[in-house]
């Protein structure tokens, strides 16, 4: 099993190539040498069944692994029953589309702390993810993994430890480790080979190597501010901020892990995903063509 690399949504290069529809993305990604695609439902689950099935068919033909990003409006850490019901509604709607597409992973944000302690927010989110997993199983989505994501703003729940704790609530939960977010919320501390090794070791300790090695991932360089954390996504060409993608690619190859790495660069997701795949293959001792 190999690590897969792909894009979050449709990069600028896709439109520059004269393509318009997401169902053209899987074939285009394959031509580019990539093998994963994360469909974005961050602003709502609005995609219809026919479109979703067409994307799924194209992905199956092109050998592209599909995941889906659930709406940003979820807040698993908010204990209000109304909010919990809305979160469940969004996640179930995302799973329905994932089923139409044949996507096997749904990424879910972990929520805002608001005026509570981190501990209280985490306790609410743990209960929420356990319930979400249960509801999704009941609806027949047992084979679709829910992936709580590490978040980039300091006032959000979702550092690595919190996300790993959430994932201990059920087997059907897999971390979405967004290394750009972790870099931003740590104000640049989580960068470089030692930090990468520490994070991957932490995942093994909490989840065991079998689960940890299959993790879901987002990667981009991210600008941050000292008070808030995440400010904006950058491209790999922009040198002012990190994290450096090389140590992760090398660590994945050295460990023989096979995660799915989704690049969230600002417009250059395909170019930067290919950069990562190249670094990974070089570390494996292969070339992109081989
Ligand atoms: Zn996200």
UniProtKB/TrEMBL annotation:
The keyword Translocase does not apply. Residues 28-271 form the Xylose isomerase-like TIM barrel domain. InterPro entries: AP_endonuc_2 (IPR001719), Xyl_isomerase-like_sf (IPR036237), Xyl_isomerase-like_TIM-brl (IPR013022). GO terms for molecular function: DNA binding; DNA-(apurinic or apyrimidinic site) endonuclease activity; phosphoric diester hydrolase activity; zinc ion binding. Keywords: Endonuclease, Hydrolase, Nuclease. One of its GO terms (biological process) is base-excision repair. It comes from the Bacteria. This is Endonuclease IV. The lineage of its organism: Bacteria, Bacillati, Bacillota, Clostridia, Eubacteriales.
């Amino acid at each position: 099993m190999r690590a897969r690399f792909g894009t979050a949504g449709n990069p600028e290069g896709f439109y520059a190539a004269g393509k318009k529809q997401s169902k053209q993305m899987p074939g285009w990604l394959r031509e580019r040498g990539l093998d994963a695609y994360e469909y974005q439902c961050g602003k709502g689950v609005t995609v219809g069944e026919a479109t979703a099935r067409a994307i799924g068919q194209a992905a199956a033909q092109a050998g592209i692994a599909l995941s889906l990003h659930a709406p940003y409006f979820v807040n698993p850490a908010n204990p209000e029953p109304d909010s919990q019901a809305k979160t469940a509604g969004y996640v179930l709607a995302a799973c329905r589309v994932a089923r139409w597409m044949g996507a096997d992973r749904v990424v879910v944000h972990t929520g805002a702390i608001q005026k509570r302690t981190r501990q209280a927010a985490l306790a609410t989110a743990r209960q929420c993810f356990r319930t979400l997993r249960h509801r999704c199983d009941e609806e027949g989505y047992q084979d679709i993994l829910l992936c709580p994501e590490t978040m980039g703003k300091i006032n959000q729940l979702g550092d690595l430890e919190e996300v790993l704790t959430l994932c201990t609530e059920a087997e059907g939960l897999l971390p979405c480790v967004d290394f750009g977010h972790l870099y931003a919320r740590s104000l640049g501390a989580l960068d470089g080979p030692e930090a990468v090794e520490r994070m991957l070791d932490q995942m093994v300790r909490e989840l065991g190597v079998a689960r940890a090695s299959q993790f879901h991932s987002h990667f981009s360089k991210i600008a941050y501010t000292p008070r808030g954390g995440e400010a904006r996504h950058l491209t790999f060409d922009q040198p002012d901020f990190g994290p450096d993608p090389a140590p992760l690619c090398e660590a994945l190859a050295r460990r023989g892990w096979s995660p799915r790495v989704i690049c969230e660069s600002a417009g250059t997701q395909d170019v930067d995903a290919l950069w990562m795949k190249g670094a990974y293959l070089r570390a494996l001792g292969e070339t992109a063509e081989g």
